[in-house]
Each structure stands twice: as C-alpha cells, then as structure tokens.
Amino acid sequence: MTMGQQELSSGQEGSVASHETSQPQRIKFKRLDKTAKHIMNILDNEAVDKVQTEREIPDIRPGYIVELKVEVPENKRRTSIIKGIVIARRNAGLNTTFRLRRLAAGVGVESVFPLYSPNIKEMKVVDKKKVRRAKLYYLRDRMNPLKK
C-alpha cells in the first residue's frame, strides 16, 4: 500500500466510527415478551413499595381475624367497619387480594378485597387462629368459625 491509500482507508474508518457514535447503540433482545414481563415486574414492585410507604399494611394470612375500615363509594362516602376471618389470599403483586368471611344477619358473607386498595382506610389484626391450610374454604360448611 502506498501512503495515499493508507490515508484514504484511515479516513474512511474515521467517518464510519464517527457515524456509529452519533446513533445510540441498539439493545438486542432475544425474547421481547420476557423483557416486557421484567419491566412490568419492576413497575409493580415500585407501586407496592409506594403504597407501603404511604400507609401501614399488616401481614394478613389465612386464619387471621381482621377488622377493616372500608370507605364505601355510594352517593356519599361513608366508612363501614367489617370484621371477619381471612379464608384465602392470592398473591399477585399490586393486585394481591384476600377473601374475608363474616356473618351478616346470621348469613355467611364472603368479600374479596384488594390488599393495596385506597378504599381500605385501616386494617387491624384482632386475633390469629392456628391453621394448617392455605385456603380455608371448609369454613363455609361450619356455622361460626369466629367463635372459639
């Protein structure tokens, strides 16, 4: 190679290098669906942390007797106190729910509440029953599981 050819080749390399640095480097994803799930998990965890810093959320497990102050959206906002036993819990990040069973006018009533709902103003664990199951659906057949 002569001196002129070396200058041309080095000049071409310099222009290519400057062209590459002006554009941001592309990230290659093998599977886009896994990346989207990862991003959603990060956002979900951040939302859960934000809610937990705003208010205290106790550890609620099946077998716990819980008292809730729930804001009921009707014409006017009013709070009602609900006391019952937790018979199930479904862990799903920000969409975590628990199923509460209580007696209302002698009839068993089950309600599903989102754990991080803004309508739940206060949660208090009244008592803890010892259970060996994750889902206490068998309490539906019992008359009153809240009594000792």
Describe the fold and architecture.
By secondary structure, the chain is α+β, with helices and mostly antiparallel strands. The protein has one domain: SH3 type barrels. It contains two helices and five strands. Strand 2 and strand 3 form a beta hairpin. The mean pLDDT is 80. Belongs to the bacterial ribosomal protein bL19 family. This is (wild Malaysian banana) hypothetical protein. GO terms for molecular function: structural constituent of ribosome. One of its GO terms (cellular component) is ribosome.
Features of the shown structure:
148 residues, 33% strand, alpha+beta, SH3 type barrels, 5-stranded antiparallel β-sheet
What is the succession of H and E elements?
HHEEEEE
Distance between the termini: 97 Å
CA radius of gyration is 29 Å
Residue runs with pLDDT of under 50 for 5 or more positions = none
Strand order of the largest sheet: 4-3-2-1-5
Strand content: 25-35%
Task: State the CATH architecture.
Answer: Roll
* Overall helicity: 25-40%
Number of domains: 1
Q: Could you describe the largest sheet, including whether it forms a barrel?
A: 5 strands, antiparallel
Task: Give the CATH class.
Answer: Mainly Beta
**Total of DSSP H or I helical runs spanning 4+ residues:** 2
CATH fold assignment:
SH3 type barrels
Helix and strand composition category: alpha+beta
Protein name: (wild Malaysian banana) hypothetical protein
GO molecular function: structural constituent of ribosome
Organism: Musa acuminata subsp. malaccensis
Biased composition (Polar residues): 1-25
